[in-house]
């Protein structure tokens, strides 16, 4: 197992190098840089050249890549140009705002998906099953930004049930419990949209995996023993249906910390995704590059994690 | 006496009996799925309306009737007009052309690259396989949306002509999609190439080219069809999201996504829902229809996957 882990970790290295080259090359293709993106009319040519020298923007692309990659190896992602702070610090400032939404989404969507999946498998071809199946398709087909806008229009503007956007109500300065309630109100709609988006495919997964388990002999045995149907389904069947799903947890890793770029913009949520979008508009390369690599690393680690969890969950397929 | 004169009775009565070909079985399975048939109907209607509808419209894409701006739906403008007095219905149909086209072409690009490279790496294994799979690893680990956004910004900075942008967009989406298909095809080819019919092609001395494109790839067509269908849906959503951010298809070319971006202006968002809600609904029903068809195709074409 350890050998397998080490081999997998080593395999990540060339992939990461490839990713860093691609991402850097794309960013180098952009004609403008941070100085031109600021559109400052008072910027003289000499001043601009001076600033470029300070930021290291005047060097050739290849050299810039090696400087950047070398710093990254030391854990130094550089300073964000627009935030005037180290990239890691900016990420730390905003990533947790995204994390709360992503975490709530994760918990909610798994809970809903398990229940919906189990019951629609249990009552296959029933009306409930058909409705769930149709809902799964709708959830899987939602354009997130449109649903977000629609919900804001309905629940925030028409019914005034939730705030339009942001994370806290401006000027309230609430503390303690009141603060939590305020944030929760702002969180509701974005979390709802994200939950809808991720529940669809998850429910489908659980339904399929439950249908597979339910037909097996040991379930018949459990019923023959005279166990209650609830015990059969939730204790005997669900456990085995859930096991392969553990691998899906690994894939959630980048989503937990990566933020939801478009939805955060729609809901004006001060998360990492929105900051990232701004950094692209501002040509804030250190942040843009650093964060892209950060997500890529999370994706690779997530894949590794899900492979490892696969082995943990099912000893039959444990890799040597 | 030549051999040719030997009586050859070619008119032997063979009882005509159509064998159940896999395609016939798949067709029967597909048509039994009512939801999929509804999806197919909706999709065909969507294509017809978008591609033929504009011909019957009294308006023009570049008609700026400022006198009629911001009208709510009425008898003259069935779905109202936007802030330039342009007919929403016409724009929506033209936008549909673009969005559907981007989805289909991007997927075609992905299928051509993905199927070819997948087949080559499954067939030749060794270094071809290693290199291709490393590339797929890299592309699959790239965060798709951020990369698309950055590339969209690059297109804007390079001052690409708005009417050419959609071609770049198709290419970019296609280039980020193919690795997923490539993996599927490779896995399939790896098992197919060990089967007996491949020994037969070996014995016949067929060229590698013929083996791959005439004997191996045709066996993966069911997978390709299912993947491509679902991928069109994904590409339409991706395109609309990018266009919504102003980084995909840009004005004056309409696309469903950039029509929704009218909602970015508060007054349009609050007071004129007819501008941005209909295109959103179009995206939604098109994508649902495609997904329903794709799923039914999966059930129909791949009995092993059906559970």
From TrEMBL, chain A:
PROSITE patterns: ABC_TM1 (PS50928)
Membrane topology per record: Multi-pass membrane protein
Membrane spanning residue stretches: 12-30, 94-119, 131-152, 187-206, 241-267, 287-310
Protein keywords: Cell membrane, Membrane, Transmembrane, Transmembrane helix, Transport
Ranges of residues in domain ABC transmembrane type-1: 95-306
Localization annotation: Cell membrane
InterPro entries according to UniProt: BPD_transp_1_N, MetI-like, MetI-like_sf
Family recorded in the similarity comment: Belongs to the binding-protein-dependent transport system permease family.
PANTHER family for this protein: INNER MEMBRANE ABC TRANSPORTER, OLIGOPEPTIDE TRANSPORT SYSTEM PERMEASE PROTEIN APPB
Protein name: Peptide/nickel transport system permease protein
From TrEMBL, chain B:
Pfam families with a match to the protein in the record: BPD_transp_1, OppC_N
InterPro entries assigned to the protein according to its UniProt record, in alphabetical order: BP-dependent_transpt_permease, MetI-like, MetI-like_sf, Oligopeptide_permease_AppC, OppC_N
PROSITE patterns in the cross-refs: ABC_TM1
Domain ABC transmembrane type-1: 96-294
Keyword set includes Transmembrane: yes
Key words, A-Z: Cell membrane, Membrane, Transmembrane, Transmembrane helix, Transport
Cellular compartments annotated: Cell membrane
Bilayer topology annotation: Multi-pass membrane protein
Primary location group: membrane
Bilayer-crossing regions: 35-56, 98-123, 135-154, 166-185, 216-237, 274-297
PANTHER family, per the entry: D,D-DIPEPTIDE TRANSPORT SYSTEM PERMEASE PROTEIN DDPC-RELATED, OLIGOPEPTIDE TRANSPORT SYSTEM PERMEASE PROTEIN APPC
NCBIfam families documented for this protein: Opp4C (NF045476)
Family the UniProt entry places it in: Belongs to the binding-protein-dependent transport system permease family.
Protein name (Swiss-Prot/TrEMBL): Peptide/nickel transport system permease protein
Lineage start: Bacteria, Bacillati, Bacillota, Bacilli, Bacillales
């Amino acid at each position: 197992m350890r050998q397998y882990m080490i081999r997998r970790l080593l395999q990540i290295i060339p992939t990461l190098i490839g990713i860093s080259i691609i991402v850097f090359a794309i960013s180098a293709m952009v004609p403008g840089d941070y100085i031109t993106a600021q559109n400052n009319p008072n910027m003289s040519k000499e001043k601009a050249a001076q600033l470029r020298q300070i930021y290291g923007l005047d060097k050739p692309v290849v050299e810039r890549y090696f400087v950047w990659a070398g710093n990254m190896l030391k854990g130094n992602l550089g300073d964000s140009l627009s935030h005037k702070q180290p990239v890691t610090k900016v990420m730390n400032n905003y990533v947790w705002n995204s994390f709360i939404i992503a975490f709530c989404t994760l918990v909610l969507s798994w809970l809903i998906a398990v229940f919906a999946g189990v019951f629609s498998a249990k009552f296959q071809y029933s009306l409930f099953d058909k409705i769930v199946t149709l809902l799964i398709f709708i959830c899987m087909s939602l354009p997130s930004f449109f649903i977000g806008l629609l919900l804001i229009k309905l629940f925030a503007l028409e019914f005034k049930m939730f705030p339009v956007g942001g994370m806290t109500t401006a000027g309230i300065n609430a503390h303690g419990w009141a603060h939590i309630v305020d944030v929760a109100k702002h969180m509701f709609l974005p979390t709802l949209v994200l939950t809808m988006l991720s529940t669809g495919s998850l429910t489908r997964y659980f339904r399929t995996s439950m249908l597979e388990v339910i037909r097996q002999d040991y379930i018949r045995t459990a019923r023959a023993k005279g166990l209650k149907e609830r015990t059969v389904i939730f204790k005997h069947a669900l456990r085995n249906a859930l096991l392969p799903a553990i691998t899906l947890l690994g894939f959630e890793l980048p989503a937990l910390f990566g933020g939801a770029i478009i939805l955060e913009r729609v809901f004006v949520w001060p998360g990492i995704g929105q900051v990232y979008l701004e950094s692209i508009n501002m040509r804030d390369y250190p942040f843009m590059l650093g964060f892209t690599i950060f997500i890529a690393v999370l994706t690779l680690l997530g894949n590794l994690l899900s492979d490892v969890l696969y082995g943990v969950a099912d000893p039959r397929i444990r890799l040597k | 006496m030549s051999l040719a004169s030997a009586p050859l009775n070619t008119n032997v009565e063979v009882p005509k009996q159509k064998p159940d070909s896999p395609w016939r079985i798949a067709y029967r399975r597909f048509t039994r799925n009512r939801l999929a048939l509804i999806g197919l109907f909706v999709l065909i209607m969507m294509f017809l309306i978008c591609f033929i509808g504009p011909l019957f419209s009294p308006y023009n894409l570049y008609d700026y009737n400022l006198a009629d701006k911001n009208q709510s739906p009425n008898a003259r403008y069935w779905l109202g007009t936007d802030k330039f007095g342009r007919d929403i219905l016409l724009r929506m149909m033209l936008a549909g052309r673009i969005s559907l086209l981007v989805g289909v072409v991007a997927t075609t690009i992905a299928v051509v690259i993905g199927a070819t490279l997948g087949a080559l790496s499954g067939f030749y294994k060794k270094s071809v396989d290693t290199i291709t799979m490393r590339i797929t690893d890299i592309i699959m680990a790239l965060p798709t949306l951020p990369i698309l956004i950055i590339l969209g910004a690059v297109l804007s900075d390079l001052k690409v002509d708005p009417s050419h942008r959609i071609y770049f967009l198709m290419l970019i989406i296609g280039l980020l999609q193919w690795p997923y298909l490539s993996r599927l095809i490779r896995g399939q080819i790896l098992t197919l190439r060990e089967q007996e019919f491949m020994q037969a092609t070996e014995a016949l001395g067929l060229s590698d080219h013929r083996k791959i494109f005439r004997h191996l790839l045709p066996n993966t067509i069911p997978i390709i069809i299912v993947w491509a269908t679902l991928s069109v849906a994904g590409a339409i959503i991706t395109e609309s999201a990018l266009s919504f951010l102003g980084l995909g298809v840009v004005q004056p070319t309409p696309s469903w996504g950039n029509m929704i971006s009218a909602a970015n202006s508060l007054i349009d968002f609050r007071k004129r829902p007819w501008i941005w809600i209909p295109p959103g609904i179009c995206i939604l029903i098109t994508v649902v229809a495609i997904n329903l068809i794709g799923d039914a195709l999966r059930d129909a074409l791949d009995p092993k996957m059906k559970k």
